[in-house]
C-alpha cells in the first residue's frame, strides 16, 4: 500500500514530457519485441532434398593440378657423395661453382672430427623442443660464441635457416605495425612479412630516396593521428648482401634514416656473414657501423659456417623476446647437437684465421674480374651480363636480351649450364617460385666463388661459360 | 612454456566435457542424412567416462578415451590462485616502476628511448610476473643423450629466476619423462650411431645448397624411397624441419577459394601453414565428428561466404596424437566423412608415427585402415626416429607437384646427411629389414609400457587425460602453484618431467605431461609412479 502511494507520487510529480518520452520508448520496445526478425543473408531456407542434391553435385578440383613432364624443375640433379669443392653430379666429376660453401668448410677435417665427437656423445636427434629437455650445453655454448664473435649481448639459434628470419619478424611486428622492405628481399623475408600481418611498404632496390619518400609520407600520416602513431612500431628490413641481386645495402645511410625517422632496422646477413668485413662479421664490420645501431641481425649458418640452422643476434632486450614468441624456436625441435658442434668448430676456424676471409675477398675480386670479362666480350656475341658487386660471392649471369618468354630464357640458360657440366664445371640456375614471389627476379645462372677454388679453376670456368654462350646463345 | 593449443578457452566456463569433447548442456540434433546422427546425452560429471564410439562398426577394437571434468571447487581455487598472482603482479610492477624494487628486466637503449616502444607493457605482464616465478622448470640444459636417463646441467639462481648460473656440476641419471623418445632411438651407440658416423666421415655435416639446386644428394633419394615404402604410399618427400614441413607445404597446396577445416587443438605449425595459404579456415571442436560433419555440410551447401561460389577444395587437417591432450584422432570416422563429402584429408602424424600400431606405421596402422585413403600423410622424424625433419607422403602426382612448388624445396637447405642416415637406419630397424627383431621388440615394449604406466597412475587415483593407447600421458594439476611445485619436487627426486600451463592449455587445466618411451624399464616407471604417490600428500588433496 505504502509503495503504491510512493509510486503515484513519483508519477504525479514528474514533468509531462518525461512521461510521454518514456511511454513512447516502452511502446517502441514492445514493437521491436514482437516484430519478425530476419537474417540479411538467409532469407530462404533450403529443403533437405535440395541440400542433398547440392552435396551430390559438388565436385572439388583435383588436389594438385597436373604438371607437364618437361617442367624445368622436375628432375633434380643428383649429387653422389659429398657436396664439396669437387662434386660428382649426375655421374660427372665437376668443380663446384654452385654450393654456398664460401669458406670451404664443408669438407674441413676439423669440423668433421668435432661433429663425430659430438655424435658419439649425444647421438643424432634432440627429441624435443628447447623448452622441454631439448637444450643442450652445446646450444648454449654456440649461442654465447656467436654473440661474442659478433660483439652483441645475446644470440639465439634456430634449427632451420629459412625459419630464422621468417620467425623473427612476426615475433616483433604485429597487425597494425609498418614494415619498409626492399623489393629484392628474399623469399624467407617475404614469408615472415606475410606471417606478421603488418602493413608492408616496398621501396625500390637500394634506393634511399625512395625509402625516404615513404618515410616522410608516413611521418605526415603520424602527425594526423598522433595517438595511433605512438603505438605503431616501424621497421626496416634489409639484407646485407642480397641473394637475388648480389649487391650490398647502403648501411650507413640506413642508420641515418633510422635515427631521423625513428624506425628500427632488421638486417638479414645470410650471404654476408663470414664474407664481408675484416673478420667476417658481416656488413656492419664492412662499413664500420656500430653493431648496437642495428636492432636485430639474422643470418643462417648454412653458407659460410657449413652447418645447418640459423641465428639471430643483438641486444638482450630484443633477442630474449624470441625465446617465448619465436614460433620456429618454441614449437620446433632444437638443432641436432652434432650440427651445433660443427658450427662451433667452423667459428673457431674463422676466428683463428682472419686471413681466410682476406683470401676469400681476394678470390672474389679475382673471380669477379674474370667473370666481368665474359660480360665485356660483346664483340664475340656473348649475350650474358654479370649482375653483382665485386665482393659478392654469389654472382648472377643474366641474358643481355630476354627473348620475352621466361620459359625459353630458362631453357637457354639451362643449356648453358648443361654444356658447362659436360666440361666439368658445375653451375646452377637460380630458382624461384614464379607464382609466389612478389618481385620475380629475371632468370639467371648463379656462379659462386669460394675460397677453395684456385685461379686455374676460375679461369677454366670462365672460358667454359664463354664457349657455351657463344655456341648456344644467338645474339 | 610451449604452445600446442591454438584456442584459448578463456571464457571462464567450466568445461563440462563428456568423453566426446562435446558440451553436455546442448541437445542438438544433426540432420537426417548425416552419417553420425545422434542426440547428445547429458552425462553426469565427475565420472570416469568410458566412451562408446557411435559407429562401432568402423572401429576394430574399443576406442577408450577419457577427459574427466574439472571438479567445481578446484576450478574456483585455481581462479583464485591466478587472481592473487595477478594482484601481486600489479603490485610488483608498481614497485618496479617507482624504483622501490630493483628491476631486472632488460631495457631499451638510451639513444632509442624516444622510439615507439618495441613491446607493449601488458604483452609481457604474464611473462614478467607469472612465468618468471617458475621459469626454472623449462629450458633445462642437458649434457648427455636424451634417452631414458639423462644428465642435467646444474644451475642455480640467486635472483629468483631472472638469471641462471651454471655451477659446473652435472646432476646424473635423471629419469627422463619429457623427451619425445618413443622408440628409444635417441642413443649414441648401436647400428644407427655407427651408420651416422660413417656418413659424417664421408659427406660432412652441412649441405650448402637447396634441394632443387645442388643439394639433392643420393642419400636423400634413398631415404625418400624408404619412407614411401614404410608408409605404404606411392611416393614421399622429406624436409629439414618438421615445423617448416607444415608451414611451407600447406600454402603450396591450398590457396584462395579453398576451405581448411582444422581441429581446435591443432599445432601452431598447422595453423601457420593454413594462415599463410590464404584459404578460409574453419575450426571444429576437438575430435568431434558431429561438429566436423556440420561444417562440411554447411560449407558445401552454402559455398563461399557472400558470393556463394562453390569451394575449390576442402581440406580436413587433423593430427594423429594430440600432444597436449593425449587423444587419438577418430580416423575411421574422419575417413568415412571425407569420402562422403569428397574432401581431402591432411594427417599430421608428428607424435603417432612409429609410436602407434602393431607395426609402428602410425595411426593408420593402429586402426587397420588403408593408407591410400589419407590424401596427404605428414609426419616428423624427430620423435620416434631420433633424427630431425619432416616428410610428406602420398600419391606420385602430389609429391611431384610438391617437388616443384614447395617453398622448402626451392629456398631452404636440404637435410643434413648424417640425419638422413639416422632416419634410414632407424626405419629399417622398425621395419625389421636389418635382420634383427629389435624393431618389433621396441614396439612391443612401448605399448606394454604405455598400458602399464597409465594403469598404475589410474589406480593411484590421478586424473589422466587421453586415449588409453597413447604414449603421451597428461596428468592434471590445475592450480598454478602446483605447476612449479610439481616440476621442482620431481627434479629433487631425480625425475625430469614437463609441466605446461596457460597459454598452451586452457587456464584452469594446467598439467604435467609424461612421454613414455620404449627405453624405459619397468623399474623406472614404478619409481616415477611411486614418487608421485609420495608427492600426493604434499601437493594433491583431491
From TrEMBL, chain A:
GO terms for molecular function: pyridoxal phosphate binding; serine C-palmitoyltransferase activity. Its cofactor is pyridoxal 5'-phosphate. The chain crosses the membrane at residues 16-34. GO terms for cellular component: endoplasmic reticulum; membrane. The keyword Transferase applies. It holds the Pfam family Aminotran_1_2. Its EC number is 2.3.1.50. It comes from the Eukaryota. Pathway: Sphingolipid metabolism; Lipid metabolism; sphingolipid metabolism. Component of the serine palmitoyltransferase multisubunit enzyme (SPT) that catalyzes the initial and rate-limiting step in sphingolipid biosynthesis by condensing L-serine and activated acyl-CoA (most commonly palmitoyl-CoA) to form long-chain bases. The SPT complex is also composed of SPTLC2 or SPTLC3 and SPTSSA or SPTSSB. Within this complex, the heterodimer with SPTLC2 or SPTLC3 forms the catalytic core. The composition of the serine palmitoyltransferase (SPT) complex determines the substrate preference. Belongs to the class-II pyridoxal-phosphate-dependent aminotransferase family. This is Serine palmitoyltransferase 1. It comes from Oreochromis niloticus (Nile tilapia). The gene is SPTLC1.
From TrEMBL, chain B:
SUPFAM superfamilies: PLP-dependent transferases. Its cofactor is pyridoxal 5'-phosphate. It is found in: Endoplasmic reticulum membrane. GO terms for molecular function: pyridoxal phosphate binding; serine C-palmitoyltransferase activity. It is a single-pass membrane protein. Residues 172-527 form the Aminotransferase class I/classII large domain. GO terms for cellular component: endoplasmic reticulum membrane; serine palmitoyltransferase complex. InterPro entries: Aminotrans_II_pyridoxalP_BS, Aminotransferase_I/II_large, AON_synthase_class-II, PyrdxlP-dep_Trfase, PyrdxlP-dep_Trfase_major, PyrdxlP-dep_Trfase_small. Pathway: Sphingolipid metabolism; Lipid metabolism; sphingolipid metabolism. It comes from the Eukaryota. GO terms for biological process: ceramide biosynthetic process; sphingosine biosynthetic process. Keywords: Acyltransferase, Endoplasmic reticulum, Lipid metabolism, Membrane, Pyridoxal phosphate, Sphingolipid metabolism, Transferase, Transmembrane, Transmembrane helix. Its EC number is 2.3.1.50. Belongs to the class-II pyridoxal-phosphate-dependent aminotransferase family. This is serine C-palmitoyltransferase. It comes from Oreochromis niloticus. The lineage of its organism: Eukaryota, Metazoa, Chordata, Craniata, Vertebrata. The gene is SPTLC2.
Amino acid at each position: 500500500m505504502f509503495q503504491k502511494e510512493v509510486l503515484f507520487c513519483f508519477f504525479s510529480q514528474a514533468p509531462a514530457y518525461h512521461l510521454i518520452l518514456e511511454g513512447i520508448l516502452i511502446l517502441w520496445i514492445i514493437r521491436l519485441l514482437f516484430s519478425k526478425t530476419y537474417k540479411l543473408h538467409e532469407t530462404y531456407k533450403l529443403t533437405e532434398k535440395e541440400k542433398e542434391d547440392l552435396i551430390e553435385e559438388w565436385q572439388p578440383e583435383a588436389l594438385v593440378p597436373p604438371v607437364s613432364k618437361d617442367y624445368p624443375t622436375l628432375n633434380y640433379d643428383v649429387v653422389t657423395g659429398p657436396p664439396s669443392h669437387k662434386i660428382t653430379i649426375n655421374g660427372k666429376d665437376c668443380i663446384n661453382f654452385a654450393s654456398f660453401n664460401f669458406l670451404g668448410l664443408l669438407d674441413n677435417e676439423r669440423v668433421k672430427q668435432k661433429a663425430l665427437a659430438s655424435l658419439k656423445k649425444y647421438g643424432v636427434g634432440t627429441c624435443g623442443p628447447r623448452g622441454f629437455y631439448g637444450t643442450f650445453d652445446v646450444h648454449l655454448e654456440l649461442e654465447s660464441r656467436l654473440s661474442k664473435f659478433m660483439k652483441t649481448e645475446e644470440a639465439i639459434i634456430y634449427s632451420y635457416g629459412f625459419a630464422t628470419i621468417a620467425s623473427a619478424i612476426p615475433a616483433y611486428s604485429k597487425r597494425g605495425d609498418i614494415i619498409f622492405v626492399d623489393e629484392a628481399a628474399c623469399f624467407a623475408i617475404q614469408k615472415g612479412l606475410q606471417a606478421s600481418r603488418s602493413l608492408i611498404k616496398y621501396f625500390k632496390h637500394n634506393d634511399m630516396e625512395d625509402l625516404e619518400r615513404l618515410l616522410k609520407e608516413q611521418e605526415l600520416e603520424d602527425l594526423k593521428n598522433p595517438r595511433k602513431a605512438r603505438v605503431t612500431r616501424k621497421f626496416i628490413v634489409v639484407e646485407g648482401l642480397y641473394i637475388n641481386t648480389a649487391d650490398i645495402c647502403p648501411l650507413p645511410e640506413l642508420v641515418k634514416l633510422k635515427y631521423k625517422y625513428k624506425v628500427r632496422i632488421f638486417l638479414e646477413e645470410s650471404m654476408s656473414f663470414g664474407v664481408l668485413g675484416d673478420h667476417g662479421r658481416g656488413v656492419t664490420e664492412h662499413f664500420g657501423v656500430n653493431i648496437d645501431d642495428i636492432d636485430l641481425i639474422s643470418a643462417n649458418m648454412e653458407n659460410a659456417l657449413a652447418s645447418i640452422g640459423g641465428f639471430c643476434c643483438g641486444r638482450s632486450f630484443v633477442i630474449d623476446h624470441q625465446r617465448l614468441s619465436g614460433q620456429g624456436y618454441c614449437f620446433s625441435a632444437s638443432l641436432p647437437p652434432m650440427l651445433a658442434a660443427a658450427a662451433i668448430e667452423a667459428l673457431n676456424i674463422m676466428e683463428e684465421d682472419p686471413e681466410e676471409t682476406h683470401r676469400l675477398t681476394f678470390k672474389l675480386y679475382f673471380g669477379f674480374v674474370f667473370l666481368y670479362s665474359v660480360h665485356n666480350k660483346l664483340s664475340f656475341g656473348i649475350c650474358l651480363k654479370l649482375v653483382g658487386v665485386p665482393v659478392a660471392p654469389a654472382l648472377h649471369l643474366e641474358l643481355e636480351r630476354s627473348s620475352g618468354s621466361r620459359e625459353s630464357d630458362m631453357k637457354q640458360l639451362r643449356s648453358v649450364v648443361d654444356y658447362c657440366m659436360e666440361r666439368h664445371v658445375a653451375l646452377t640456375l637460380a630458382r624461384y617460385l614464379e607464382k609466389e614471389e612478389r618481385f620475380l627476379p629475371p632468370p639467371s645462372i648463379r656462379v659462386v666463388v669460394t675460397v677453395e677454388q684456385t685461379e686455374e679453376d676460375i679461369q677454366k670456368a670462365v672460358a667454359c661459360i664463354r664457349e657455351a654462350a657463344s655456341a648456344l646463345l644467338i645474339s | 612454456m610451449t604452445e600446442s593449443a591454438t584456442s584459448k578457452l578463456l571464457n571462464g566456463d567450466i568445461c563440462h566435457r563428456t568423453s566426446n569433447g562435446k558440451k553436455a548442456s546442448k541437445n542438438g540434433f544433426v540432420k537426417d542424412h548425416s552419417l553420425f546422427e545422434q542426440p547428445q546425452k547429458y552425462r553426469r560429471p565427475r565420472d570416469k567416462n568410458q566412451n562408446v564410439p557411435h559407429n562401432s562398426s568402423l572401429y576394430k577394437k574399443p576406442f577408450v578415451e577419457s577427459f574427466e571434468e574439472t571438479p567445481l571447487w578446484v576450478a574456483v581455487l585455481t581462479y583464485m590462485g591466478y587472481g592473487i598472482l595477478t594482484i601481486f603482479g600489479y603490485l610488483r610492477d608498481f614497485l618496479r616502476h617507482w624504483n622501490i624494487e630493483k628491476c631486472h628486466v632488460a631495457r631499451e637503449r638510451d639513444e632509442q628511448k624516444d622510439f615507439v616502444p618495441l613491446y607493449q607493457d601488458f604483452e609481457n605482464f604474464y611473462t614478467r610476473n607469472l612465468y618468471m616465478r617458475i621459469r626454472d622448470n623449462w629450458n633445462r640444459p642437458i649434457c648427455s643423450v636424451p634417452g631414458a636417463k639423462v644428465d642435467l646441467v646444474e644451475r642455480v639462481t640467486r635472483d629468483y629466476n631472472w638469471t641462471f648460473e651454471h655451477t659446473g656440476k652435472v646432476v646424473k641419471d635423471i629419469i627422463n619423462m619429457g623427451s619425445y623418445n618413443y622408440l628409444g632411438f635417441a642413443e649414441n651407440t648401436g647400428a644407427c650411431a655407427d651408420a651416422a658416423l660413417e656418413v659424417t666421415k664421408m659427406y660432412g655435416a652441412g649441405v650448402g645448397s637447396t634441394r632443387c639446386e645442388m643439394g639433392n644428394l643420393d642419400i636423400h633419394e634413398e631415404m625418400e624411397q624408404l619412407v614411401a615404402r614404410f608408409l605404404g604410399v606411392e611416393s614421399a618427400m622429406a624436409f629439414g624441419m618438421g615445423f617448416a614441413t607444415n608451414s611451407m607445404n600447406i600454402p603450396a597446396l591450398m590457396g584462395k577459394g579453398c576451405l581448411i577445416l582444422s581441429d581446435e587443438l591443432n599445432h601452431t605449425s598447422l595453423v601457420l601453414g593454413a594462415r599463410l595459404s590464404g584459404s578460409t579456415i574453419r575450426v571444429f571442436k576437438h575430435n568431434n565428428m558431429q561438429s566436423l560433419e556440420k561444417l562440411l555440410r554447411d560449407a558445401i551447401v552454402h559455398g563461399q561466404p557472400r558470393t556463394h561460389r562453390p569451394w575449390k577444395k576442402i581440406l580436413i587437417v587433423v593430427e594423429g596424437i594430440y600432444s597436449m591432450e593425449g587423444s587419438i584422432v577418430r580416423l575411421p570416422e574422419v575417413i568415412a566423412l571425407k569420402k562422403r563429402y569428397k574432401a581431402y584429408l591432411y594427417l599430421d602424424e608428428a607424435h603417432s608415427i612409429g609410436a602407434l600400431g602393431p607395426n609402428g606405421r602410425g595411426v593408420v596402422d593402429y586402426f587397420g585402415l588403408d593408407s591410400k585413403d589419407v590424401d596427404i600423410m605428414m609426419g616428423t622424424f624427430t620423435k620416434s626416429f631420433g633424427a630431425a625433419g619432416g616428410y610428406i607422403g602420398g600419391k606420385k602426382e602430389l609429391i611431384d607437384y610438391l617437388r616443384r612448388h614447395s617453398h622448402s624445396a626451392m629456398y631452404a637447405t636440404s637435410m643434413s646427411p648424417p640425419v638422413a642416415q639416422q632416419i634410414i637406419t632407424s626405419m629399417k630397424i622398425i621395419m625389421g629389414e636389418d635382420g634383427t627383431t629389435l624393431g618389433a621388440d621396441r614396439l612391443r615394449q612401448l605399448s606394454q609400457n604405455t598400458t602399464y604406466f597409465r594403469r598404475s597412475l589410474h589406480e593411484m587415483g590421478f586424473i589422466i587425460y587421453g586415449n588409453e593407447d597413447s604414449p603421451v600421458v597428461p596428468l592434471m594439476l590445475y592450480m598454478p602453484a602446483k605447476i612449479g611445485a610439481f616440476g621442482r619436487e620431481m627434479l629433487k627426486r631425480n625425475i625430469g618431467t614437463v609441466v605446461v600451463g596457460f597459454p598452451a592449455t586452457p587456464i584452469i587445466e594446467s598439467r604435467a605431461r609424461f612421454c613414455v618411451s620404449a627405453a624405459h624399464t619397468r623399474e623406472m616407471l614404478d619409481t616415477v609412479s611411486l614418487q608421485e604417490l609420495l608427492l600426493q600428500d604434499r601437493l594433491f588433496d583431491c
